[in-house]
Amino acid sequence: MSLFQILFRHLKKYLKDVCGAMVTMTLSALAVLYQPRLLEAIQKDLLKENTSKVVSDSIWIIGLGIIAIVAGILNVYFAAKLAQGVTSDLREEVYEKIQSFSYANIDTFSTGSLTTRLISDMNQIMNLVMSIFMQLVRLPIILVGSFILAILTIPRFWWITLWVLVILTVVGLFIMKLANQQFEQYQVRLDKVANLAQENLLGMRVVKSFNQEGEQVNKFSAASDDLNRLNLNIGYLMSAVIPAFSIIAYIAICAVTTMIGLQIKLHPTDIAVISPYVNYILTLLFAVWIIGIALMNVSRGKVSLGRIKEVLDTKPSIVFNDKAPDEVLSGDVEFNDVSFTYPGSTKPTLQHISFNVHAGEIVGIVGATGSGKSTLAQLIARLYDPSSGTIKIGGRNLKEISEKSLRKSVAFVLQKAILFSGTIASNLRQGKVDASKAELERASIISQSFEFVRNYQDGFNHEVQERSANFSGGQKQRLSIARGIISNSPILILDDSTSALDAESEKKVQDALEHKLKETTTFLIAEKIISIKNANRILVLDDGKLVAQGTHEELLKTSDIYQEILKTQQAREMRGEH
Ligand SMILES: Nc1ncnc2c1ncn2[C@@H]1O[C@H](COP(=O)(O)OP(=O)(O)OP(=O)(O)O)[C@@H](O)[C@H]1O
């Protein structure tokens, strides 16, 4: 798919508006070009004292003026409608594509870059579409028309008109080259300011608690000043264009009028062509200038289209078997010699992991920070595919099952609790769309969130604000667990999801999971051994390797690493550290 195909595929829907834009562009261009001809005719008639012709031509001039204005307004209407429509359709297409991305795809682009592509690049594309439908037909007509008509107005000075066009084009191209370099820089500096603002606002609490406001303001000011300086330079450059162009045009106009003046006795009617000639030269100047701007928009838009194409051309690195039935699988989980390396990384994060878990087991996963616990959990939910080895759930290879089947069978509660703006109920129902009130209550009782939900006057209809700012860390974790539980999946993964809970609440959640979700295979990832002590089986990870597995008691006897982790944690506990 070529760059512009990406855009024009979306135009099919708006054929009427495309026609409207084309017709109004042509009309307004012709009206602009014909007015000086009428002016010339009026002046010639005045010289011949043909008053009735003067009146009818004047009415024509006013008529043409009205046509130009109406066509111009309608053209902006059609172009804006097309620009908004096409960009919004393209944005939705890109957004849908991103939804199909695996974690690995998102890692490759980075979320920041995907956000910029959806917002800033789309704005550039909108400008491009607007430019196309305001100028594509209009400018060539005006440029060629004003050039030919300027020559026809006073044919013996054709060479001056040609020189004007050549010099304007050369100066225009030179300025465009300078401006393009500045615009590229502008995008880079704008990204920097946006990233700093985003980082700072998201981490506002940290900034405030470490008294870093001054430091952050300085960093932001430096980046903003940088952007401002460049903006000023672009402004200076742009403000020099019109005077530079005008000088060229006025030199030509002076040359022509002087030469006409010198030969006025020979050609007395030439007095009538001065004003239309000036008009055509100024129109030519205007056309070259707008073509320059339009070309800049095209080159900026092309960069953005390229960035969008990159997203659209990316194949999701995880492809599901859509032909497989959408069934809920059993809770057995099997890892067979699984190794995994993150995209772009050289060191494997998991190496030769094999284990076999039966439905209904509670499995604890422990290990030092960075040992690969979350990565292992993410492989079960097929957020990444293993680099080698196979993973089966319910006896079926993950690569052979459909996405719906996988999502119905595995519920994943992430390490970082994320709620979406809406209500508590709408968040919990992301786990099960048609969950009844009783199901909401059951899930929130198990996750120990019912206590505080019950205290809200509007209960489950209580509002979740943007970035869930009206909930504490512990509340968010409890609601995230409830969302995982409500789906009733045979496999539930809690990735360090109780870290913000006090010891008593954590114990209550675990007891509830053990007694109320007996059929569910539950993976509990925890930093502290005490949190998973009662698991039916504990997997011990060390630097990406599964170094031991068994119950707490078994591991105390058989695994040195497990004993070491426990001792370190107990010592820390004694020192009162967390
Ligand atoms: N998206 C990623 N891209 C590249 N490397 C990653 C990515 N996510 C994690 N890693 C690396 O993989 C290793 C294992 O990370 P993982 O999050 O699985 O560890 P963990 O045992 O869960 O740690 P913690 O207890 O601190 O959460 C770490 O060295 C980490 O830097």
TrEMBL record:
Chief location: membrane
Transport listed as a keyword: yes
GO CC annotation, single: plasma membrane
UniProt keyword terms in alphabetical order: ATP-binding, Cell membrane, Membrane, Nucleotide-binding, Transmembrane, Transmembrane helix, Transport
Residue stretches spanning the membrane: 21-39, 59-80, 125-151, 157-179, 236-260, 280-299
Domain ABC transporter residues, every copy: 333-568
Domain ABC transmembrane type-1: 20-300
InterPro entries xrefs: AAA+_ATPase (IPR003593), ABC1_TM_dom (IPR011527), ABC1_TM_sf (IPR036640), ABC_transporter-like_ATP-bd (IPR003439), ABC_transporter-like_CS (IPR017871), P-loop_NTPase (IPR027417), Type_1_exporter (IPR039421)
Stored Pfam families: ABC_membrane, ABC_tran
Bilayer disposition of the protein: Multi-pass membrane protein
ATP-binding listed as a keyword: yes
GO molecular function, one term: ATP binding
Protein name according to UniProt: ABC transporter ATP-binding protein
Protein source organism: Lactobacillus jensenii
